[in-house]
Amino acid sequence: MVKTLNSTARQASAERAWGSISRFYENWKKKTKGKKGFSQVKKFSRSVEYKTCGWKLSEDKKYLTITDKTRVGRLKLVGSIDLNFYQIKQIKRIRLVKKADGYYPQFGLDQDRKEITPKTGSLLGIDLGLESFLTDSNGKKLENPRFLRKSEKRFKKLQRRLSKKVKGSNNRKKAQNRLGRKHLKVSRQRKEGLSIAGSARINALGQNNLCVVNESLQDKLAGKKSL
Questions:
Q1: Which whole number is the average pLDDT over 188-212?
Q2: Are residues 62 and 101 part of one domain?
Q3: Is residue 115 part of a domain?
Q4: CA gap 200, 194 in Å, rounded
């Protein structure tokens, strides 16, 4: 894998590895609370990062071509963000992530973002829990949708099918892909669904510029341990 990457991709990978190691030693020096395990190295990586070379955008900026020897080739860009609003020189990095249903490019842009919001003086406190996903200071609750619990039977069925396939066979790869797609679907449901539910609760109050305060989970766990 390393031999097929260009020099900038290798450099970016080395920077990420060194950054992880340096954070480990910095946390020990600062005596940061929580677990400070040494950085783990994965045998197989699902992402690769390019800087200013190793990739090329089409003229209409709807196709991305990886020009090194990884054999990824040409990818069609599908999404809500139009890259035509940005110049090529503004794109400083591109990270290509492989998931169960395809490749996902992430663009690092050099763009000044200024967002000025007027002060409203409104304040809302929220508490995250297990029985109810969210409880605010007004007494309103949002139920936990429990996407993972509802999909446990499907997970077990797909896992049993995968375990019965011969290792290295095409049928095992297909079963592994089905299981990976299901994990990806539930992960998106938990991330997007809960985010939408939380935003809907705040929007229901009619305050766009609202100061939201939540409890630190580390303090909450520390309190349980002390008891």
A1: 69
A2: yes
A3: no
A4: 10
